[in-house]
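COMPLEX REQUEST
Ligand: cobalt (II) ion
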Amino acid sequence: MRGPGPNDPCWCGSGKKYKKCHRDQDAVSPPAGNEVRAGTVTPMRTVPPSIQPPSYARTGRPRAAPRISDPADRIARMRRVGRAAAEVLDLLSRAARPGVTTEELDVLAHEACIARGAYPSPLNYHGFPKAICTSVNEVILHGIPDSRPLQDGDVVSLDVTLYLDGVHGDCCGTVAVGKVDEESRRLLQIAEECMMKGIAAVRPGRPVSEIGRAVEAHASAHGYDVVRSFCGHGIGEDFHTDPQILHYFEPRARDLMREGMTFTVEPMITVGSAEHVVWPDGWTAVTADKKRAAQFEHTLLVTAGGAEILTALPGSG
Ligand code: MF3
Ligand code: CO
Ligand code: CO
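STATUS: Structure written out below.
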């Protein structure tokens, strides 16, 4: 079957000419089977002036923020933003149903952040155009919410970060849309377990490499691959800061965990190979073999005895 000509309307229904819309993408990864295709992305939404914006809100370029000097105050703020992020993720997880577009989930998230007095951290972060990342099926991470309706049998990662009271809280979960096949159900289960194994390895005085060691061991024991090109990160006054948290064992990752540190653990686990390619939008990272991926993420506080999960829902254990 021949595709549309350069000046024909794009097949995606955007109303734009094919050459202005999906032609570049089709050249990289021709339409085949039921691969995820980019939909249309609406213009960036705005945030009311009452919401305190992070450094990059206008420019798209983050600038390192000064540290909050009082540790107890910093932790109190991290707990508040963590809980708010968990609430928004929970709301989105329930809303992810067949027929709902990822754009609709973005609008829900955008409004839910504002209702909590928070700025949706991804918005204009290095130019990212939306409030959340929505990553469907073979999309590993950084999927841009668009006009694609979720389909029965999809899996979708919802990555939610809020900026409140001068600090960020970051979490992600992957949910089943309608009824998914057994392979996908298992992927979600093992990926969440991988995150929890990584969290269980957190202890002051240990190198951060212990986290990746635990994540990778669990994934490979069940025949899954771990994405190496994207990692967890220190978080707080800045969205992404040191230390890097790798999700595979790297003996050179010798940074020691210290009580009071805040960072994320956010493994991406794949059914097939973890190799990825990035769409022409510059964000969306998909598995090269187009097999499915899942991601779970929490923001953690290192405590004397291990880790406190800052982005846990109250009453979730
Ligand atoms: N929330 C993602 C993370 O876990 C980062 C998203 S940045 C964006 O680190 F610009 F893609 F939104
Ligand atoms: Co995240
Ligand atoms: Co993160």
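REMARKS: The CA atoms of residues 286 and 303 lie 35 Å apart. DSSP finds five helices and 15 strands in the chain.
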